[in-house]
Design a protein that fits this description.
With 266 residues, the chain is of the alpha+beta class. It has two domains: 101 residues, no CATH class; 135 residues, no CATH class. It is 26% helix and 23% strand. The chain contains three helices and 18 strands. The protein has a four-stranded antiparallel sheet with strand order 5-6-15-14, with no helix packed on it. A three-stranded antiparallel sheet has the order 7-4-17, with no helix packed on it. The protein has a three-stranded antiparallel sheet with strand order 10-11-12, with no helix packed on it. Helix 1 packs antiparallel against helix 3. It is elongated. 23% of the residues are buried.
Length: 266
Amino acid sequence: MLDALYISAIGLRAQQEQLNTAANNFANLNTTAYKRQSVDFAAILDRVPAAADLSPASPAGPAASIDPSNPANARPNSLLHYDLAPGAIHATGRTLDLAISGPGFIAVELPGGRVGYSRGGSLQVNAEGGLSLPSGEALKADIRIPSGSTQIQILPDGAVNASVPGERSPRTVGQIELATFANPELLQYQGDGIFLTTEAMAEPTSARPGESGTDPLVPQSLEGSNVDMTSEMVSMTLMQRVYELNSRVAQVADELMGMANNMRHE
């Protein structure tokens, strides 16, 4: 009977995680450059206690409380996988909107000297004259917009031009490069559209957009979410059905255990 409860526990946890992930995908249908999440079933197996630990008396059982402030109980980074396929690109006409049409990321500076990787978005000029993401992280590229510039232009090859008063032609003030990875599936998502590298990954390759297997940038445009609403709805329906089936397994196992206990007392 415990084996049935163990199998049911795995199934219930897996489907609950998948339902939560699907709900998050739905919530980000219109989020710029959002990447669809999916659950790694093998990672869930690692989190489920052994069948011998499923008894109510065991502190490791399903009913055990979880302290969210304890890092040991935090969701492992490997639990979620991200579909890095490009989303649809939509023209916005905004000068500092930037989309990446193919593979690659833009390096950004993070606190503590770390480097993150973003798929672009609605850039802005920060107080230092550099370009930054809407969440405030500055691009790692050395770009300085001269004070008083009347127009900023990002070209498909990543060159950034600025029109400065008193100069006849725009001045090139910096270059945006794309970072590509041999195994991008190992990237970890930090939030705000930023990914981090892991120890298992090799150093990224940097190149101008349109070179070394990268595609040119798409200025004045934004990359949409790569979540397909129809597919997500079908998947959610299947998840709900599987959740109900696993719940039924647990109910039947409980009934059989009750019958076995009654027969023992008789």
